[in-house]
Amino acid sequence: MAAAPKEAQNSVSFAPTAAEDSAAAAVVRRENASAPDWGVPSTAEDLQSKNLASLMLVDPSTKAPTKGIQLMPRAQTKHPLDPLSGAEISVAVGTVRAAGATPELRDSMRFIEVVLLEPDKNVVALADAYFFPPFQPSLLPRTKGGPLIPSKLPPRRARLVVYNKKSNETSVWIVELAEVHATTRGGHHRGKVISSTVVPDVQPPMDAAEYAECEAVVKDYPPFIEAMKRRGIDDMDLVMVDPWCVGYHSEADAPKRRLAKPLIFCRTESDCPLENGYARPVEGIHVLVDMQNMVVIEFEDRKLVPLPPADPLRNYTPGETRGGVDRSDVKSLQIVQPEGPSYRINGHYVEWQKWNFRIGFTPREGLVIHSVAYVDGSRGRRPIAHRLSFVEMVVPYGDPNDPHYRKNAFDAGEDGLGKNAHSLRKGCDCLGYVKYFDAHFTNFTGGVETTENCVCLHEEDHGILWKHQDWRTGLTEVRRSRRLAVSFICTVANYEYGFYWYFYQASRSIKTEVKLTGILSLGALQPGESRKYGTSIAPGLYAPVHQHFFVARMDMAVDCRPGEMHNQVVEVNMRIEEPGKDNVHNNAFYAEETLLRSELEAMRDCDPLSARHWIIRNTRTVNRTGQLTGYNTTYGLRHMHVERTFLEENFLTRIRVLGKGWLLGSNEIGLLKKLILYSGIFLELHMFHAWKTGLSCRSNTLALCFNHMDSSTVHLQLMCRQILVMRMRKIVTSRRMSYLSLCLCHLG
């Protein structure tokens, strides 16, 4: 492969350097005034504002008078939506630790998550209007007195989830940060504690440090050592212990204690890092670990199940000698862009082919796409979505046998998709001219860790976009399709997930895709045994049936300015016209639209037989044909579910949410954050007004979409005030890469 330009190999860190910070704070944005392009103006107001600003650059140290609207001095180097820098994380941790009343309390603090507390949408609009790209005052709502321009933006805030190891308490802290904290780490710098709240009877997500300590404790436990000897294993270095949350099956599993029930696996070669230990599950051993005190509190060797034999195909590394497939006959394929990429990046702000958006990252969700908009010629910058991300996923297992019945992993909430993200490699993870972004996290003890090259951004050729040949003249026209890909990949124990967001030139469409390419969580079989609830994949080895549910949160704002709520959801079904005077030839069919007026009405199933889809529509903006503008949601091909999903009843009992219905309702208007319990884990779910009662919601409102996706079939719910829950069902039958996708297509 040809060497990439040096710039392509550099990563973009979330934290600016001290020199950049000083220079940015000392001068007005002269670089913006001298730049050849400020982006396509949204309106005449934007154009006038930018022309005035280019003529009236005022140094912050002077008192020169100004008239009209001007770009503000860059007193802030961090956009309100930029992820926390390593310096900001360090300051936030230090602030919370210093607030501890006693040395014992401070020493017992464990930091689960430190993340940006995202500001109000109006703050984001103000930043994008005057302080940061795209510099468009028209983003702000119009007022009678004209725009009110403050001298600076509100301070950034951090949200911390803290676990007290000594008292077994979970607390949530809000810390206000100053501009100096963006680049100055530690020392005497402290933020301001805005609030701290103890959340009773919950457990926060477990940390990698706890996993490692739990494995060591179990492997040193004498009864466990004896149990492994019964199975022919004397070398404990061969043993792998994966802590899993206990789940909730009785009051003994209540979150008053921090508990784990590990799964056991065994390698065949202790000194070989290429060995796949997940191919040899150890069954029949019950272990319960107190994760707060790191002691084994229950142990039972219930059943002697022979270890699966070492299969020659168990490994996934290259070379036939290790069970891999020889691909040495594949020739080199080069992807080069000699003129560089078509995208432009300013910090976290990305512009490509009339698209513009901001890249964010959180420990739980991983990649977050903010402020998605499209520059549409004379119509200017048109907002599409405020925020796009995957907020949760769950993997329930359908095997009632021990230990598989208790497998029910929330890989985002329990482990964190972002915290487990890879450092990507050029040439395989991403091809072409690549731009990387780093990510910063806190570890269990409050230190700052950085994952380099965590997010990949690059262009891809996507085949033929369209082609037409005039059969009379022979004139042929063809266009190729190009798309911009933004992605990250994470590993949670045995499984890998690749999350991709694609932006297309054609039809202004957005597509999200999850690639499932991990190792199955397997079970062992007795000689001659078969399992109804799984698929045999090798001698003595089977894959339990299970599903993958992915929750994509899409905060839509189709043609809406901040604060405007003019979106509605319409369901579209194809109908066959009844025979009659309007259908004399018996061939008519048409698209029937139904407005979803309440959350209860919007509990909908997918129906590919009627080509059912949903349109997120703006009620006050029309396209050139006079139709309301909107985005059409389309999904992958494998939609049919085998049976009605069990989530409404049985699954709710397992996650200890009182009452019926998938989400509990609230009598308060607006979006509320509530805490629920699953496996004793501290999770946040969004609960919606009038979900249970079916009270009518305004059809002109915001559109917050929750898509529950899986790679084979779909169970879909739509909500009007906060719309769209899609759930897909999957039965895993083999170890292969699976795909699921969701696409938003522009309608004008």
Descriptive notes:
The protein has 748 residues and is mainly beta. The protein has 4 domains: 10-142 and 150-191, Roll (Nuclear Transport Factor 2, Chain: A); 208-318, Nuclear Transport Factor 2, Chain: A (Roll); 337-548, Copper amine oxidase, catalytic domain (Beta-galactosidase, Chain A, domain 5, Distorted Sandwich); 557-729, no CATH class. The protein is built from 10 helices and 36 strands. The strands form 8 sheets. The protein has an 11-stranded mixed sheet. The longest helix is centred in the first third of the chain and has 13 residues, at 86-98. The two termini are 41 Å apart. The model is unreliable at 1-73, 638-701 and 711-737 (pLDDT under 50). Residues 333-635 form the Copper amine oxidase catalytic domain. The modification 2',4',5'-topaquinone is found at residue 495. One of its GO terms (biological process) is amine metabolic process. InterPro entries: Cu_Am_ox_TPQ-bd, Cu_amine_oxidase, Cu_amine_oxidase_C, Cu_amine_oxidase_C_sf, Cu_amine_oxidase_N-reg, Cu_amine_oxidase_N2, Cu_amine_oxidase_N3.
